[in-house]
Amino acid sequence: MQGTCRLLQALCVYPSSSRSLAAGDGVAVSFFPNRFLPGVLSAALLLAPVLHGQASYTSMPLDQGFGPLDPTQPDIPVAQIVTEFTAKEAIFRHALDNYTWTRSVRVQTLDDDNKPDGQYYQVVDIAFDANEHRTERVLDAPESSLTRVMMSPADFQDIEERLPFVLTTEDAPQYDITYVGKQKIDEIDTWVFDVKPKVIEKKKRYFQGRIWVDQKDHQIVVTNGKNVPDDTRPGHEDLSTPFVTYRQLVDGKYWFPVYTHGDGVLHFTGGHGYLSEDVHLRTTVKYTNYHEFHTSIRVLYQGQDITGNPQKGPAGQPSQPSQPAQTPADPGKPQ
């Protein structure tokens, strides 16, 4: 998030399952279907000491439902757990490429009374076109009223790629993954890991924080941390808030992200004629309407469906030119 400043004066004071998760604005989360625990997702912010050139933000308190952390070692080797859940995460990422969903994004700046005084809002359908290419169709996008900050390219990339954090076998060598312990989230038994990048390469962004991995399905169910690094050069700051992302079991197979909440105070440093100020920022992302993509195209031969093997007839013989395969006029669309 970039501050917007003027010379001499800073304007920038800166699907249901028994193993499911659902969350919304201002509510705690639960791993039971259609049940929400009462409570507030983020507590009042207490500013940490601000270092010059550093972003100031508050770590987000975890919600109700998190049991005590058990630091004892697991029954199976930690390395084996990491190998298995990163492999499952690779399957998850591939599966997500074959799903459609709706994503709503709300970014707000808050005044001293904790009330919104500026907002960016957008709703998009992420689907496939007639040629089965991934598309994004904007459903709602009123004009942004943000005045104290502006969305940067890194913000949009974070929304699309890093808030729904995925840690695959391919990604794992870039991170130090440290076992922390075991923790129960409602009825879900999880392993807890701290994750941080080994090396930060120029022009690349990474996740740094904590993840909770379901002991049964070996997939990440909660992510809590921050995207790094921030650009803290005075006058060029591009800062981001800490966030927590919750997932839900979809189609009984994949833990897909359903809700992200980010909250923090960003500190924009002063210099060269403008003042340093703070901006309280809140981000909410919701992912809904997950549907697996299925093509509706069928190949018929003499009244039988031979989709997937159009070169042969029902008896395993080559199709005759005089009996061409038939396809419907309307190509496949997401269900």
Count of β-strands:
14
Shape summary: globular
The succession of helices and strands, N to C, reads EHEEEEHEEEEEEEEE
The overall pLDDT average reads 76
Per DSSP, the total helix count is 2
* Low-confidence blocks of residues: 5-55, 310-335
- Largest sheet entry: 10 strands, antiparallel
Q: What is the beta-strand fraction?
A: 35-45%
Distance between the termini: 36 Å
Strand order of the largest sheet: 4-3-2-12-11-10-9-8-7-6
General description of the model:
It is a single chain. The chain has about 325 residues and is mainly beta. The protein is built from two helices and 14 strands; from the N terminus they run βαββββαβββββββββ. The protein has two domains: about 1-290, no CATH class; about 300-335, no CATH class. Helices cover about 10% and strands about 35% of the residues. Strands 4-3-2-12-11-10-9-8-7-6 form a ten-stranded antiparallel sheet. Strands 1-5 form a two-stranded antiparallel sheet. The chain has a two-stranded antiparallel ribbon with strand order 13-14. The longest helix is centred in the first third of the chain and has 19 residues, at about 80-95. It is globular, with a radius of gyration of 24 Å. The model is unreliable at about 5-55 and about 310-335 (pLDDT under 50).
